[in-house]
Amino acid sequence: MLFLRRISEMMPGKISRKELEKKMERGDDFTLVDARSSDSYREERIKGAISLPLEEAEKKAEAMLSKDEEIIVYCGGFSCPASGNEVRKLREMGFKNVRHYAGGIKDWKEAGCPTEKG
User: Fold this and answer.
1) Which of 27, 65, 71, 96 has the most CB atoms around it within 10 Å of its CB?
2) For residue 79, with 0-12 CB atoms within 10 Å meaning exposed, 13-18 middle and 19 or more buried, which class applies?
3) In 81-96, which positions are buried (b, 16+ CB within 10 angstroms) versus exposed (e)?
4) Thinking of the domain 2-116, which architecture would CATH place it in?
5) Tens-place pLDDT, residues 54-89
């Protein structure tokens, strides 16, 4: 798993947990998107994230997001393909600054970072 983490963080458009934490601490302007199902989102999510499940991205992304803003997408973790697929979909739709947090909520929680429920 450590190997997958290192590879995913070296690829273009990727963001590490530490970099995401710093952006949040600084109050940087970006939108954090949870690509998991609506049920998973309601159960628990990274604090401040919005829900845009992969299967709804094509229909709802343009109404929810700006094509010029920074967007960071995550899902369940390194073994979950939803966020990577959603990043590709958003880029195909013309969103210019889309990044992938491959560690997802699993990595976030393991590091003791804040989540919210409900």
Assistant:
1) 71
2) exposed
3) ebbbbbbebbeeeebe
4) 3-Layer(aba) Sandwich (3.40)
5) 999 999 999 999 999 999 999 999 999 999 999 999
For residue 87, give both structure tokens: 């990043």
Quote the pTM value: 0.89
pLDDT digits (tens, 9 = 90+) for 1-21: 444 444 444 445 899 999 999
* Cα 21 to Cα 61: distance, rounded to the nearest angstrom: 24
